[in-house]
Each structure stands twice: as structure tokens, then as C-alpha cells.
Design goal:
mainly alpha; 112 residues
């Protein structure tokens, strides 16, 4: 991939040099040739050709992050299980259960 890029930049550089030293050419024309025939198209092509590599790196990073999160969760569960035994009742906190609110709104239909 890089061989094509280097060869293309060599050709564009030679085109820009020929433009700059030509009797009818200008340095501004050489810069325009370098940018529009070389740098801009090659930046787009390099970006597009690097997409699979970026996608693979992103998937690899997500998989590593998920593996670390799984290990951390397992370690937290093991530490919690070792620290406090499970209560016999699900709601064994010693507090009363929450009561229903008194001011509940009940919708009534009007007869017309």
C-alpha cells in the first residue's frame, strides 16, 4: 500500500517541479498541482484503505474492555460473597414495607 503512495507522490512531485520550472508555469501552479493531484487524493485514498484496520482495532479494543469489565465484575462478586453472607429473607433489612400513597389520583368519567 505504501509503495503505491510513495510512487504516486514521486510522480506528482515531478509534475509540480516541471510546472514550477516551465517557462509558462508558476510556483503557484506547482503548489496547486501538488495539493490537488497529490496530497488531497492521497489523503482520501489512505483514509479509505485504512478503514478495515481501524475497524479491527476498534473491535479489539472493545473486546479487551469487555473482558476487563467481566473480570472486574467477577472479582467484585467474589469479594461481596466472601465479605457478607447472603440474608435468609430477600427483604431482611429491618424496615417496614412502603405503604401506598394516600393522595392517589383516580380518574372518573363524567356523564354527558
Amino acid at each position: 500500500m505504501y509503495l503505491v503512495v510513495i510512487a504516486w507522490m514521486y510522480v506528482v512531485l515531478m509534475m509540480a517541479v516541471a510546472e514550477a520550472f516551465s517557462p509558462q508555469g508558476t510556483v503557484l501552479g506547482a503548489l496547486v498541482t501538488l495539493v490537488f493531484y497529490g496530497l488531497l487524493p492521497l489523503s482520501i485514498v489512505m483514509y479509505l484503505m485504512g478503514t478495515p484496520r481501524r475497524r479491527a482495532a476498534r473491535r479489539r479494543a472493545e473486546a479487551d474492555e469487555a473482558a476487563q469489565a467481566t473480570k472486574a465484575n467477577q472479582a467484585d462478586e467474589a469479594a461481596t460473597a466472601a465479605r457478607a453472607p447472603a440474608s435468609p429473607q430477600p427483604d431482611d433489612g429491618g424496615h417496614a414495607a412502603a405503604a401506598q400513597p394516600i393522595d392517589t389520583f383516580v380518574a372518573e368519567r363524567k356523564e354527558s
